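User:
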Amino acid sequence: MREDQEQQIKDTINKIKPFVSPSGALIVLICFFLPWAKASCTTETGTQVHVMTVSGPDIGGVLWLAFAAAVVILLVFFFFLGQGRLDQSRLVVALCALVGLASILIKYLDTEKPPGVTVTIMVGAIGTIVGLVLSLIGVLFLKRESSENRLILKPPPKKKARRH
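Assistant: Predicted structure:
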């Protein structure tokens, strides 16, 4: 009985593994709109003053590539999932995740911090990076599905009309 339960757990995990990449992309879509950074400065009296909080859309520019990459990852994943050929989505998913990470790096390197301003990285930026890394790691689990291991139901093939 115990071996049956262990096998069921392994089978369940194997069915869930392919969803690592789209889960990461979904995290990106959510975190993109959360606060990314908080800027504050210290006054002459030593008091810390909160100046502003910005999210992904507030920062904009090249960061929209990270958002677009997550959308493409989801679209490509579900397209190939429907066909039972997840292995063919690996390259696109990996490239999208790398483009998203590169866009964040480019924006970070391009941003100048004024003197006397303290910038605190917040959950939106961290979550977006984690989501893109998760999508990249998930590429390892995108494999062709066997017919008995299908993740979704596919309609039966249409019968050809018989000619008499």
